[in-house]
């Protein structure tokens, strides 16, 4: 019934002048005499509406359910009779026919809210054919129940206009298809019946078509609303929520925009103004979105671009730069993915290896005591927007306190020009901004890398690549601690997730390799 | 607006939580402050930061690795007798009351006044042992029927806390939830003797300091004030915390002037600054609509005074949205 009422409302709004001049006949079956000229013009106009509608329906019947675009444009020309003052000869013919038949139907339509052309015999068929295709699903009281919708694909019940979105089941659905579907709704259905449900459906379908972040598509969707109809005209209408269902729908569109981080623009504002007026909830939400989006636009100190690179090497470089705060760091690509086919899938035998290291880390590695091993740990996860990449690190354990080297302070040989000056600038007890806590101390990290595969062979290649810039690494035993990504750095005591044979083997292998390399080089 | 949520039905009052606490005193303070209520689905509640309600006694903080233990079966068997437990509890409360009175004479919170006044940096929560984990409650959208999981455990070498889990934004099919997918870690409200609610007083400080190590996901920090008043039940102040990811520790400094006000999960038009004298709890929420595993390692949480930060409040009210404030 709600559908009926909506249609009735829209029918009312569309034929506003017509019904007004017909005197809003309360008795639907009472015929209005066509003698009075005022009523005659009104009925002419109403009949023109009905004829256009009928024309549309017949065209629909002829061309099939959804019609081809070129036929649609034809209909558009004739459908414009609503707003255009002049009418073509075909319309005049239909008009003459309609006048003789249409009185009762019109009166009935304005009060009962049914679509206009009920009396013409072909019209119910045409109406229902198009109804099955477009809007009027619920049965009117005096019409035959509509034929069951032909279920083409899935067996579950389709939403009303879902077939509009099923035009291109083959291939990828893209923006053009979506736009076409939305426009088809408008063309099909001049009075925009069922637009609320259609908009909800379109919002649900946006993700499939990949247009959920496209502002133009949202504006197009807002354009589906009939304009000027839902604007409140008096203070009482402004006080109460005028057309609540439509306002809710408008808010839902804006809410989906907000969820996907789309900033509305002036066109959206104008559309909302036209549709709902300034004192409506969608307009209020728009103002709030403008305010808060602009406030929170740049609060991320580590911004990640919205369009992440597809190439895994570029993604790895982006991720490594994202993680490393030191801008002096150098990114090195140790191995490019070998295959170059169009799908971009890396050959599993040769995944990409990209590493990063800062000069400080290089120096620290050079000073590292070769007696202590360094560990390759990983993989740890890093999220860049909605993509997760994994990285490994090369780190060493913290030196126990007794082995930490103490900086030797050379003796001052001149007190007038001291080499070290420690002036305590703290004024008193209130100048202490340090936290009274032992910060977590961990061993130094020497390098980070991102590789296509997480196995020991790939990481061994990384280590070999690192050895070119860090020759000291040749002497240092490397232990591989590759775990599943539980997320945290492994504790040195409980860390060895892999069973003990591999690490010593790895160690031995590394040492052997290093010795061999040593021999090779020397 | 980033935390637009659905309307929280306020019928579920979280004060039910202390009642079972009082009624099962054998789970006294020596065992840890757990409520014995299990996971409950609150009435018509959904959304992301609705987990900021500390109503849930559904503690997902685990002592052991991946096994969800029921609280009533910790490592020791509860062999204590009921009477003895009650007596212990009463003695404990009286002891705390005595401490409280004595401390009042020494100074605020038992520290001498000059020390408190001149303090510029204070560590509020640190994670150095299991008892530090007990001060936090972990929730996720499992309470509304979602599929996210979240666990809290001690990190490497007992030096940090690790909050990890999986986020899933699959909407629960209960006919009323539109969105789902959130995980949160909330601190417990500090309690005095006889479970009287206390609050933190941070009025001397102006910045929140966190030392964390994340995985690149954006988190939300929520601060709640005293929520006994029914109008304040769902109000909180929030701001975003962006983690960098990577193996390095990250220092996050959020001045309190940046926190925006929200009620029932929606940013309000009338904004006022966060007043620091009665802070109940702080919480971290993850709800960034990306499914997948996550982790956050926290070293400690502190507050300090940033002398360079002079801003009082970052958001001005707009006359368009709130004309009443400008009359």
From TrEMBL, chain B:
Residues 125-298 form the NADH:ubiquinone oxidoreductase intermediate-associated protein domain. GO terms for molecular function: unfolded protein binding. GO terms for cellular component: cytosol; mitochondrion. It is found in: Mitochondrion. Residues 45-82 are annotated as: Disordered. Residues 53-82 have a biased composition (Basic and acidic residues). GO terms for biological process: chaperone-mediated protein complex assembly; mitochondrial electron transport, NADH to ubiquinone; mitochondrial respiratory chain complex I assembly. Its main location: mitochondrion. Keywords: Chaperone, Mitochondrion. InterPro entries: Galactose-bd-like_sf (IPR008979), NADH-UbQ_OxRdtase-assoc_prot30 (IPR013857), NDUFAF1 (IPR039131). Part of the mitochondrial complex I assembly/MCIA complex that comprises at least the core subunits TMEM126B, NDUFAF1, ECSIT and ACAD9 and complement subunits such as COA1 and TMEM186. Interacts with ECSIT. Interacts with ACAD9. At early stages of complex I assembly, it is found in intermediate subcomplexes that contain different subunits including NDUFB6, NDUFA6, NDUFA9, NDUFS3, NDUFS7, ND1, ND2 and ND3. Interacts with TMEM70 and TMEM242. Belongs to the CIA30 family. As part of the MCIA complex, involved in the assembly of the mitochondrial complex I. PANTHER family: COMPLEX I INTERMEDIATE-ASSOCIATED PROTEIN 30, COMPLEX I INTERMEDIATE-ASSOCIATED PROTEIN 30, MITOCHONDRIAL. This is Complex I intermediate-associated protein 30, mitochondrial. The lineage of its organism: Eukaryota, Metazoa, Chordata, Craniata, Vertebrata. The gene is NDUFAF1.
């Amino acid at each position: 019934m709600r559908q009926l009422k909506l249609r009735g409302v829209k029918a009312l709004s569309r034929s506003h002048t017509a019904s007004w001049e017909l005197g809003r006949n309360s008795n639907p079956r009472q015929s209005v005499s066509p003698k009075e000229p005022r009523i005659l013009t009104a009925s002419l106009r109403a009949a023109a509406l009905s004829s256009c509608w009928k024309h549309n329906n017949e065209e629909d019947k002829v061309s099939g359910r959804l019609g081809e675009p070129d036929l649609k444009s034809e209909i558009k020309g004739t459908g414009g009779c609503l707003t255009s003052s002049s009418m073509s000869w075909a319309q005049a013919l239909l008009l003459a026919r309609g006048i003789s038949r249409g009185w009762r139907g019109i009166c009935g339509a304005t009060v009962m809210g049914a679509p206009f052309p009920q009396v013409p015999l072909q019209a119910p068929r045409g109406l229902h054919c198009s109804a099955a295709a477009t809007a009027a699903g619920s049965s009117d009281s005096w019409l035959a129940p509509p034929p069951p919708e032909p279920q083409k694909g899935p067996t579950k019940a389709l939403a009303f206009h879902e077939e509009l979105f099923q035009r291109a089941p083959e291939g990828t659905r893209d923006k053009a298809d979506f736009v076409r579907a939305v426009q088809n709704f408008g063309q099909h259905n001049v009075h925009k019946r069922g637009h609320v449900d259609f908009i909800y459906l379109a919002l649900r379908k946006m993700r499939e078509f990949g247009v959920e972040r496209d502002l133009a598509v949202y504006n197009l969707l807002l354009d589906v609303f009939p304009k000027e109809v839902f604007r409140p005209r008096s203070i009482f209408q402004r006080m109460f929520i005028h057309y609540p269902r439509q306002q809710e729908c408008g808010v839902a569109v804006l809410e989906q925009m907000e969820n996907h981080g789309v900033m509305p623009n002036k066109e959206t504002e104008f559309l909302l103004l036209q549709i709902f007026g300034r004192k409506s909830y969608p307009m209020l939400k728009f103002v709030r979105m403008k305010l808060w989006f602009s406030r929170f636009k740049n609060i991320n100190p580590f911004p990640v671009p919205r369009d992440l690179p597809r190439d895994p090497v570029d993604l790895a470089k982006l991720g490594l730069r994202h993680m490393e705060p030191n801008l002096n760091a150098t990114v090195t690509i140790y191995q490019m993915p070998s295959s170059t086919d169009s799908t971009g899938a890396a050959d599993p035998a040769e995944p990409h290896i990209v590493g990063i290291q800062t000069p400080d880390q290089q120096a620290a590695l050079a000073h590292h005591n070769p007696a202590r091993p360094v560990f390759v740990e990983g993989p740890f996860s890093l999220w860049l927007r909605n993509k997760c990449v994994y990285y490994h690190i090369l780190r060493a354990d913290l030196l126990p306190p007794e082995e930490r080297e103490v900086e030797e302070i050379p003796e001052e040989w001149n007190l007038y020009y001291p080499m070290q000056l420690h002036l305590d600038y703290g004024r008193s007890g209130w100048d202490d901004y340090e936290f009274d806590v032992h910060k977590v101390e961990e061993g130094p990290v020497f390098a980070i890398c991102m590789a296509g595969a997480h196995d020991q062979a790939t990481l061994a290649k990384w280590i070999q690549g690192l050895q070119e810039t860090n020759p000291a690494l040749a002497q240092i035993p490397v232990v591989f601690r590759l775990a599943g990504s539980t997320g945290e750095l492994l504790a040195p005591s409980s860390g060895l997730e892999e069973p003990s044979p591999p690490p010593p083997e790895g160690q031995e292998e590394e040492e052997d390799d290093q010795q061999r390399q040593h021999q090779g080089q020397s | 607006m980033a935390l637009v949520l659905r309307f929280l039905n306020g019928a579920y009052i979280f004060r039910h939580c202390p009642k079972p606490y009082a009624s099962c005193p054998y789970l006294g303070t020596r065992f840890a402050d757990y409520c014995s209520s299990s996971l409950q689905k609150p009435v018509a509640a959904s959304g992301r930061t609705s987990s900021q309600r500390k109503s849930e006694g559904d503690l997902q903080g685990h002592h052991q690795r991946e096994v969800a233990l029921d609280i009533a079966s910790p490592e020791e068997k509860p062999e204590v007798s009921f009477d003895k437990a009650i007596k212990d509890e009463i003695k404990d409360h009286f002891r705390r009351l005595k401490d409280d009175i004595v401390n009042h004479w020494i100074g605020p919170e038992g520290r001498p006044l000059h020390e408190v006044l001149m303090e510029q940096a204070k560590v509020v929560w640190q994670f150095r042992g299991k008892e530090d984990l007990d001060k936090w409650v972990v929730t996720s959208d499992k309470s509304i029927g979602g599929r996210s999981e979240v666990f809290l455990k001690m990190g490497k070498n007992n030096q940090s806390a690790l909050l990890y889990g999986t986020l899933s934004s699959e909407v629960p099919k209960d006919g009323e939830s539109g969105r789902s997918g959130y995980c949160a870690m909330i601190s417990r409200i500090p309690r005095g003797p006889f479970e009287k609610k206390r609050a933190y007083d941070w009025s001397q400080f102006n910045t929140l300091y966190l030392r964390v190590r994340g995985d690149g996901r954006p988190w939300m920090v929520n601060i709640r004030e005293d929520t006994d008043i029914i109008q304040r039940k769902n109000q909180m102040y929030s701001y975003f915390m962006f983690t960098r990811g990577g193996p390095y520790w990250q220092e996050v400094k959020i001045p309190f002037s940046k926190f925006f006000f929200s009620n029932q999960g929606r940013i309000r038009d009338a904004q006022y600054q966060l007043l620091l004298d009665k802070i109940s709890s702080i919480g971290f929420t993850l709800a960034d609509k990306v499914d997948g595993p996550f982790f956050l390692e926290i070293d400690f949480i502190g507050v300090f005074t940033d002398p360079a930060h002079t801003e009082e409040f970052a958001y001005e009210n707009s006359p368009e949205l709130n004309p009443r404030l400008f009359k």
